[in-house]
């Protein structure tokens, strides 16, 4: 992650911070989100030879994700609560398929560009988690557990 931070700083981004080893980055830029995503993708491709799709959220949007948590205090294990961040809203058909997928006490809420999912038995064997991680969504998506979401907001707010 230190190399990623250095690469992004060299690409002109400011206040670059990373969290854990899964590509979580907080940075500052005056560019629009699409431009930031493309620039980060290009930096990763040029520096590391990897073709990685990037999903970007502004600090205010991330704060709204946390504020709009549909499950609130009913969730007692934040690592089993995931938010899937989408680069565009889901089609109605895909959203309906996701709405019909929870099993075994799982809960799901499809929002505009996020999907909140509670996996009480974990994500390992969850068909819902598999669906949310798949390419069948028709959009670029990346999921983070609630602990990571709230920590990224703290990093973005400092």
Overall description:
The protein is α+β, with helices and mostly antiparallel strands. The protein has 2 domains: about 1-50, 2-Layer Sandwich (Alpha-Beta Plaits), CATH 3.30.70.1280; about 60-155, 2-Layer Sandwich (Alpha-Beta Plaits). Helix content is about 40%, strand content about 20%. It has helices at about 1-10, 35-50, 60-65, 90-100, 125-135, 145-155, and strands at about 15-20, 25-30, 80-85, 105-110, 115-120, 140-145. It has a 4-stranded antiparallel sheet with strand order 4-5-3-6. Strands 1-2 form a two-stranded antiparallel ribbon. Strand 1 and strand 2 (about 25-30) form a beta hairpin. The longest helix is centred in the first third of the chain and has 16 residues, at about 35-50.
| Helical percentage | 25-40%
Query: In the residues, how many domains can be counted?
Result: 2
**Secondary-structure element series:** HEEHHEHEEHEH
| Tally of contiguous helical segments | 6
Could you tell me the strand content as a percent range?
Answer: 15-25%
Assign the structural class, choosing from mainly alpha, mainly beta, alpha/beta, alpha+beta, or little secondary structure: alpha+beta
- Work out the number of β strands: 6
């Amino acid at each position: 992650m230190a190399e990623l931070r250095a690469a992004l700083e060299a690409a002109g981004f400011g206040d670059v911070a990373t969290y854990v080893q899964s590509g979580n980055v907080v940075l500052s830029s005056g560019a629009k989100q699409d431009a930031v995503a493309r620039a980060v993708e290009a930096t990763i491709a040029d520096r590391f030879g990897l073709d990685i799709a990037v999903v970007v959220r502004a600090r205010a949007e991330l704060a709204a994700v946390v504020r709009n948590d549909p499950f609130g205090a009913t969730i007692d294990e934040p690592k089993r609560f995931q938010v899937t961040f989408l680069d565009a809203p889901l089609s109605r058909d895909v959203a309906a398929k996701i709405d019909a997928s929870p099993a075994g006490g799982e809960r799901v809420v499809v929002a505009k560009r996020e999907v909140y999912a509670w996996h009480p038995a974990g994500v390992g064997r969850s068909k819902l988690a598999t669906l949310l991680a798949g390419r069948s969504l028709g959009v670029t998506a990346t999921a983070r557990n609630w602990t990571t979401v709230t920590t990224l907001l703290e990093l973005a707010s400092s």
